[in-house]
Write a structure and sequence with these properties.
Elements (H helix, E strand, L loop, with lengths): L2 H11 L2 H12 L4 H7 L4 H13 L3 E6 L2 E6 L1 H31 L1
Antiparallel strand pairs: 1-2
Helix pairs in contact: 3-4
Length: 105
Amino acid sequence: MTTDTLVPVFAALGDDTRWSILEALGDADASASALAERLPVSRQAIAKHLVVLQAVGLVETVRVGREVRYRVLGSELSATAQRLDSIGAEWDRRLVAIKQIAETL
């Protein structure tokens, strides 16, 4: 996962409603209507948020009969978390190096 792919993901995750949608979809696949029943947002707003989440690869659609349900793509969330972990590890390494330099002074 590159910076070019992370920026849109973080932009999508920067919205509280989208976080709530992802949390709800973490429990089970759901339609936009079902999500609207669980969240204090209209079905139309949910649908717009789902388009954003789908565009950045965090959710996918699954057709169940005539209903379209949405599913979280855990692999994409895991890849994002791994990238953040590697950035954090690099900063930890740098801070240790700075501490060592400061202690030798």
